Amino acid sequence: MIQRPQTIFLILTAILNLAVFFTPIYSHAVNDPAAWFGIGMALSLTLPMLIALISIFLYKNRSNQLKWVKIATYLQIVALGFAIGTLFSLGGFGKFLWKEVLSSGIVIFSLASLWQAGRLIKKDEELVQSMDRIR
Question: Which residues cross the membrane (predicted)?
Answer without folding.
Answer: 7-29, 35-59, 71-90
